[in-house]
Design a protein that fits this description.
It is globular and about 50 Å long. The protein has two domains: about 1-25, no CATH class; about 30-180, Rhodanese-like domain (Oxidized Rhodanese, domain 1, 3-Layer(aba) Sandwich), CATH 3.40.250. It is α/β, with parallel strands linked by helices. It is about 30% helix and about 15% strand. Helix 5 links the parallel strand 5 (about 130-135) and strand 6 (about 160).
């Protein structure tokens, strides 16, 4: 950030004004985000195309892009009384999207990385040029990590939808309840 921009932000903050959204976006890290996944994300992802809701909607309507939801699978509460039956809460996502939970973690266990690679290969039918769009929720590093990882696997047409299901739902676009992909 330039000195003039820094001074302008300081003046806004001292005056009690809201800091512009562009000032809150962190820079792209070298690697993956490893913790605090629910936080402001960069505005960019080198090698990928970052989309807002209207552009994501256009890709969805065209039907040629694989939409991949990477929101984590909710864990079973640790304080459930003995004998309580646990049922996963419903997972609502963009209609037609595939849910690959937990693949957006910063560090993946070997089994999770294998799950991610196998599913990407299956979803693209082995075509690394097939477009893939990654999302989770607004201000969620999981989708950023997953998109970056797919780039590292050699996939060439990667979209990152940083507004995720929050932006989609706010635009009243189609949603559905899904189960994780095996």
């Amino acid at each position: 950030m330039r000195r003039r921009d820094s001074l302008a932000l300081l003046a806004l903050a001292l005056a009690g004004a809201t800091v512009p959204a562009w000032a809150e976006a962190p820079a792209e890290p070298e690697g993956y985000r490893l913790d605090n996944y629910k936080a402001p994300t960069p505005r960019t992802l080198h090698g990928a195309t970052v989309l807002a809701t209207p552009a994501a909607g256009e890709l969805w309507h065209a039907g040629q892009t694989v939409f991949v939801d990477v929101l984590p699978h909710p864990p079973k509460p640790v304080d459930l009384p003995a004998g309580t039956i646990w049922r996963d809460p419903p997972h609502e996502t963009i209609a037609g999207a595939v849910w690959l939970p937990d693949v957006g973690q910063g560090a993946l266990a070997a089994v999770t990385e294998d799950y991610f690679k196998r599913n990407l290969a299956d979803l693209t039918k082995g075509d690394r040029g097939r477009p893939l769009l990654f999302f989770c929720r607004k201000d969620c590093w999981m989708s950023w990590n997953a998109a970056k990882r797919a780039l590292g696997y050699g996939y060439q047409r990667i979209y990152w939808y940083s507004e995720g299901v929050d932006g989609w739902k706010a635009a009243a676009l189609p949603m559905e309840t899904v189960q994780p992909r095996p």
